[in-house]
Write a structure and sequence with these properties.
Layout: E1 11-16, H1 27-48, E2 53-59, H2 64-77, H3 83-100, E3 107-110, H4 116-133, E4 137-147, E5 152-153, E6 159-162, E7 190-194, E8 202-211, H5 217-228, H6 235-242, E9 249-253, H7 257-263, E10 270-273, E11 281-286, H8 289-301, E12 307-308, E13 315-316, E14 318-319, E15 325-326, E16 337-338, H9 340-361, H10 373-376, E17 381-388, H11 392-406, E18 414-418, E19 421-423, H12 439-442, H13 448-456, E20 465-467, E21 476-479, E22 486-488, H14 501-524, H15 536-554, H16 558-583, H17 587-608, H18 613-622, H19 627-630, H20 640-646
Parallel strand pairs: 1-2, 1-17, 2-3, 17-18, 19-20
Antiparallel strand pairs: 4-5, 4-8, 6-7, 8-13, 9-11, 9-12, 10-11, 14-16, 15-16, 21-22
Length: 676
């Protein structure tokens, strides 16, 4: 393996997708986004220095999902608090869940809650005024759903229908987007139904601001070429983005061909592509979205049914719902609020500003610089955005175009898009038929570190993977031969819990190596470090594992990186078992085996630290080192003896902290311990 090493930025911002402020977090939020983001944030802190990393996220406090959740809570549960109270309570629950899983955010606030609210509202106004000033905001009179019976315009989530985008089978489409992230105009929604009254709403004209996204197609195509060549960007990102970087197309079933032919001469310039083979429809391609929309009007008037394809459309910036960030008054428009999706794209900047401002207020000692531009607009800085695959359109299409349009020199985010974590092999959604367990519920059956290790090992960078926690598996295992009753998987002692695979390594192999070192040092080294040097082959194995881990972590392959650490630990644990048994009372040979084991333990602990921090920090503490030195990659290739030397100590002078009997650095959950 070559020793060429990946490069890292001088400073980095890490951010995870913002959860809506209408509910607590289920396991997908934690396991699919926040744990991978936390792994990388912790790794970077160790790799480039704690002061050079900012890890921020927060509650998305605005938008129609929150309004709808609040409305139902008031009407169905008699909730008496304000909508801000409602969001605050959900935010507090989300933060508690993140804390319980050891997610090391430097800031988790809310876009509508202080202290972040002031920064976020100010930045939002600056963004919109800048876009308007540069000519990238267009005022459009578009039609919005209006419930005649309720006498009110409907926000996005108060309308539900079927997605009109060709090939999409989503039955959960709202006013202008479906639950799979497809964008469309409200008039395209199939079979719309008001969630307030159950009636079919009308479409009435409303003035709003739209971002001219289609004009940035060339820039987005160039960015995709760059991302194709960037090993840190996953193929799913560029594949998904390119699906929208196409000319606008309308698809018409063959049975409507006669109606199409009758009105074709009224359409804007277009190209017809005839069906091939057994295709049930033909396609009509236009030069731009405006021509396509004119064609839609003609076809609708002629009674020709059609579906649209993906393409770049003007990106809606404002709406007329009450619960949103106020938009500045521009060109005679007033009283508008900003749609939650655009403002959530720059929320990580306002959260960064908040974190740095709080640091400056307390003396400015936490971060290497408190100027947000040094993090977001500097050539030696990088921004890493952890998202789910269904949010690629917003973060990898709309956001790059917005950054370009602003002209502020913003660093383009590196997107890390994970596939979904399924639940019992099915897509889980808190608003769908398959209800996933909430993050807090899982801690009744597992420790945080057990789940962190498991989720990181799923390989979500490659494909969607199912999470199958046995205590929550209510499927039938078999019928009891004596009683004939069905036995559920969760109650079948013969079935191994797939969520504990990685835990077995922690509680057995890793624990055993650590305990062997400390108990062994107490026996033959008077609770000090071994005085002999580890064998060269052990030091080389540690060096090679460290380099390979670094390479894989740089590419966001947590699964592969942890496999490297586990293999080293298993290998060196076996070496220790063989060598310590062979010593047979020979203290010199035993000390040599112990020196090898300590060297391996130091490396494995360094590498596993981003995944299972608490247990690793306990090992560091018992080894007698400060965490800042022990986990710093400035000393990544130093064994315990070299680390002691940095403190001005010889091995015989460096004391370790003795372990009490039967001590575990990585514990099982109490529910997993067999009762005697």
């Amino acid at each position: 393996m070559p020793d060429s090493r990946p490069s890292f930025p001088a400073r980095a911002v890490i951010t995870g997708g913002m959860p809506y402020g209408n509910k607590n977090l289920h396991f997908g939020h934690i396991g699919g986004v926040f744990v991978p983001a936390d792994f990388f944030a912790r790794f970077l802190r160790d790799r480039i220095g704690r002061e050079n990393v900012i890890f921020v996220s927060g509650t998305d406090c605005y938008g129609s999902p929150i309004m709808e959740g609040y409305r139902k809570k008031v009407e169905e549960e008699g909730y008496e608090g304000t909508i801000t109270d409602y969001v605050r309570s959900n935010h507090d629950a989300q933060k508690a869940a993140l804390d319980s899983y050891e997610i090391s955010l430097d800031l988790f606030e809310g876009s509508g809650l202080e202290p972040a609210r002031t920064h976020h509202h100010r930045l939002t106004a600056e963004v919109l005024e800048r876009l308007h000033e540069r000519g990238y905001l267009v005022k459009r009179s578009t039609r919005q759903f209006y419930d005649v019976k309720a006498g009110t315009f409907l926000n996005g989530r108060q309308v539900k229908g079927r997605c009109p985008v060709r090939g999409c089978k989503s039955e959960k489409a709202y006013a202008d987007e479906c639950d799979l992230g497809h964008q469309f105009d409200p008039e395209e929604l199939i079979a719309p139904v008001s969630q307030l009254t159950g009636t079919t709403p009308e479409l009435r004209p409303v003035d709003n601001w739209y971002f001219d996204l289609p004009t940035f197609r060339p820039e987005l195509e160039a960015l995709m070429d760059e991302w194709d060549a960037d090993p840190q960007v996953r193929a799913i990102v560029t594949k998904t983005v390119r699906e929208s970087l196409v000319d606008p197309v309308i698809y018409i079933q063959n049975k409507f061909r006669e109606g199409f032919d009758a009105c074709e001469d009224k359409l804007p310039a277009h190209t017809v592509t005839e069906p091939e083979g057994n295709q049930q429809s033909f396609s009509v391609t236009f030069a731009d979205w405006e021509a396509r929309d004119k064609a839609r009007e003609v076809l609708e008037g002629a009674g020709v049914r059609f579906r649209t394809g993906k393409c770049l459309l003007p990106f809606r910036i404002t709406g007329n719902i009450d619960w949103g960030v106020p938009a500045p008054d521009m060109d005679g428009t007033s009283g508008l609020t900003v749609w939650c999706w655009p403002e959530s794209l720059w929320a990580p900047i306002s959260f960064t500003q908040t974190a740095l401002d709080l640091d400056a207020q307390t003396g400015g000692t936490r971060f290497s610089t408190d100027d947000w531009r040094d993090w977001w607009c500097s050539e030696d800085a990088r921004v890493y955005q952890f998202i789910g695959q269904d949010n690629i359109y917003f973060y990898c299409v709309a956001q790059p175009a917005l950054w370009n349009a602003l002209g502020w020199g913003l660093v383009q985010d590196t997107p890390i898009a994970n596939y979904h974590i399924l639940f019992m092999n099915k897509k889980a959604s808190s608003s769908g038929a398959i209800k996933p367990p909430m993050a807090a519920e899982l801690l009744d059956a597992y420790t945080p570190e057990q789940l962190r290790a498991h989720w990181l090992s799923l390989g979500l960078d490659q494909k969607a993977v199912s999470f199958n926690p046995k205590p929550f598996d209510t499927s039938v295992s078999h019928k009891d031969k004596k009683t004939g009753e069905e036995v559920l998987v969760k109650d079948d002692p013969r079935i191994v819990d797939p969520a504990l695979k990685e835990s077995a390594f922690l509680t057995n192999i890793f624990n055993r190596l650590a305990r062997s070192c400390f108990y062994g040092a107490a026996n033959v080294c008077d609770a000090h470090l071994p005085q002999v040097a580890p064998h060269a082959e052990v030091m080389e194995a540690c060096r090679r594992a460290t380099l390979e881990f670094e390479r894989l972590a740089h590419g966001f392959d947590a699964h592969g990186a942890l496999a490297v650490a586990e293999e080293l630990c298993r290998q060196e644990n076996k070496r220790w078992d063989d060598a310590s048994k062979a010593a047979k009372g020979d203290d010199a040979a035993y000390e040599q085996a112990l020196a090898d084991a300590f060297c391996a333990l130091r490396t494995v602990t360094l590498l596993m630290h981003p995944a299972v921090p608490s247990g690793c920090e306990k090992i560091c503490e018992h080894m007698g080192f400060g965490a800042e030195d022990f986990f710093s990659w400035k000393h990544a290739f130093d064994g315990p003896v070299e680390l002691a030397a940095t403190l001005g100590q010889t091995p015989v002078e460096h004391a370790i902290v003795p372990l009490p009997p039967r001590f575990d650095f990585f514990e099982k959950h109490p529910s997993q311990v067999k009762k005697k």
